[in-house]
Design a protein that fits this description.
By secondary structure, the protein is α+β, with helices and mostly antiparallel strands. It folds into 2 domains: about 1-195, Aminohydrolase, N-terminal nucleophile (Ntn) domain (Glutamine Phosphoribosylpyrophosphate, subunit 1, domain 1, 4-Layer Sandwich), CATH 3.60.20.10; about 215-395, Rossmann fold, CATH 3.40.50.2020. It is about 25% helix and about 30% strand. It contains 13 helices and 23 strands. It has a 7-stranded antiparallel β-sheet. A 6-stranded antiparallel β-sheet has the order 5-6-7-8-12-13. A 4-stranded parallel β-sheet has the order 17-20-21-22, sandwiched between helices. Helix 2 packs antiparallel against helix 3 and helix 8 (about 280-290) packs parallel to helix 10. The chain is elongated.
């Protein structure tokens, strides 16, 4: 998973390095193991960091009127070539140097020929910015601006709005945007196939975002309401796992009338355990981001809602924490269908052997994590909320594109 951003100033007096830096901080929900940015003035200057964007230190001499940035799990990005610099969200096949050469010389043909599932941003050595989503549209890409001065490409609207930009619209699947000193133009390179990533909507995107032409907060509230339609539980309080699952809990509470409350407060950095790079952080990360509030759960029958379940380790620790603070019952609801297969497109869903829902029954999982019961959103319920133009390969083992 990755967040990518490109910023282009129409007047070369601008320095876009801080726009890129803060835009990347707004995208680090998409991955934070490795980050970096490249700016163009007379030539390319790069800063890379093994860690989150917020840990980057910008040198005083980093200056450029256009640039791109990356935050995610691939140590190879951003890539500077003889023809320009490239950042990618997703998986592409082929020699990067040859792809960059093609994007510089024959961009439309090259975009049509690239194999993979991806969104990309390419800044050429002569100062042209290209953004593109492959025709399946599994990875998002948005465009916005800062008045008439800057154009901004970003994986999510958060990369645009946190730097004061105004969101314009989503780049369509199979569509390319070309930005130079004089204009912004769009070309439909390939026919749209529309297979949006269900996990991006359920988990990956920020709750204040607009992705795949949907408001994330509103979408997750509806998923919570759908959970209430499918599985009503007699309980005293509904709580959600911050931050992604809070709207699910709000929706469930609205539909059932069971009071919603804030079950956790943060301690330390906002760790996203699905994205964590080592097993220790996956376990201890739940304590860093989820410290339960005793008065909310003590002596109560608790409904705990989370966005997904991968290995079960995070939820096991969370349920244990609630029990230790006196929760009378803990019923777990999951705002996605079961994850039973890996993602070949770059989402951090591991192999089937590591996925708890692919290997144990519901009763066994409830016992392992210490819950009184567990329930996952049905695939039919997911389609009811999101429609069927989705990639749900990690839930069904049926993938829209072979790469």
């Amino acid at each position: 998973m990755a967040g990518i951003i490109g910023v282009y100033a129409f007047d070369k007096i601008w320095n876009v390095s801080k726009f890129l830096y803060y835009g990347l901080i707004g995208l680090q929900n998409r991955g934070y193991s490795y980050s970096g940015l490249v700016v163009l003035k007379d030539n390319f200057k790069a800063i890379t960091n093994e860690g989150a964007p917020e840990d980057i230190t910008l040198p005083s001499d980093i200056d450029g009127w256009a640039g791109v940035g990356y935050t995610g799990s691939k140590i190879s990005y951003p890539i500077i070539t003889d023809y320009g610099t490239l950042v990618v969200d997703g998986i592409i096949k082929g020699d990067i140097q040859e792809i960059a050469k093609g994007l510089y010389k024959e961009p439309e043909k090259t975009l049509r020929d690239i194999q993979g599932v991806f969104s990309l941003i390419f800044l050429s050595k002569d100062g042209r910015l290209i953004g593109y989503r492959d025709s399946y549209g599994i990875k998002p890409l948005e465009i916005g601006g800062f008045g008439f001065d800057l154009a901004i490409l970003s994986s999510e609207t958060s990369g645009i709005t946190v730097i004061g930009g105004e969101f314009r619209r989503e780049i369509k699947p199979g569509e390319a945007v070309f930005i130079d000193t004089y204009q912004i133009s769009y070309t439909q390179v390939e026919e749209s196939k529309h297979n949006y990533c269900a996990i991006d909507l359920i988990y990956q995107s920020r709750i204040d975002g607009f992705v795949f032409n949907r408001y994330i907060y509103e979408t997750r509230v509806k998923i919570g309401e759908q959970l209430a339609e499918e599985k009503r539980i007699d309980a005293d309080v509904v709580i959600g796992v911050p931050d992604t699952a809070l709207p699910f809990a709000i929706g469930y509470s609205k539909r059932t009338g069971i009071p919603y409350d804030l079950g956790f407060t943060r301690t330390g950095s906002p760790i996203r355990t699905m994205l964590a790079s080592d097993d220790f952080l996956k376990v201890i990360g739940v304590q860093l981001k989820l410290n339960p509030i005793k008065s909310v759960v003590k002596g109560k029958r608790v409904i705990l809602i989370d966005d997904s379940m991968v290995t079960g380790r995070t939820l096991k620790n969370t349920v244990f924490s609630l029990r230790s603070l006196g929760a009378k019952e803990v019923h777990v609801l999951i705002g996605s269908p079961k994850l039973i297969s890996r993602c070949p497109y770059g989402m951090e869903v591991p192999e089937e052997k590591d996925l708890i829902a692919a290997n144990l029954t519901d009763e066994e999982i409830a016992k392992v994590i210490g819950a009184d019961s567990i329930y996952w959103l049905s695939l039919e319920g997911l389609y009811k909320v999101l429609g069927k133009s989705l990639c749900v390969g990690c839930m069904t083992k049926k993938y829209p594109r072979v790469i």
